[in-house]
Amino acid sequence: MLVARNYKTPGRGGGEVDLIMQEPASHAKEEATLVFVEVRQRANASHGGAAASVGASKQRRVIFAARYYLLRLPKVPPCRFDVVSIEGDLSHAPQLVWMTGAFEAPSF
Q1: Cα(16)–Cα(21) distance, rounded to whole angstroms?
Q2: For the whole prediction, is pTM greater than 0.70?
């Protein structure tokens, strides 16, 4: 379920999350997981492709925004960071890959 789109922290130099989603719990005793998703598209893979463009700097900005978002919540749910990479021209059947748990936040 989509929770937010293009979530940005206030101020200059903050962070941004393309999508914040909620994955339902698989069992009644579990909590739903909040999923912070970075979406990247590249027409070709000459520089490593879309997934390779989510480097340490971009990860820090996503993590920063996620932490800021979580401050609003009364209780922090389980969280995960995913990357959706889109390779190729959007008009000619691009390849979409959803990488679950693509990176982790230290002490999250």
Answers
A1: 14
A2: yes
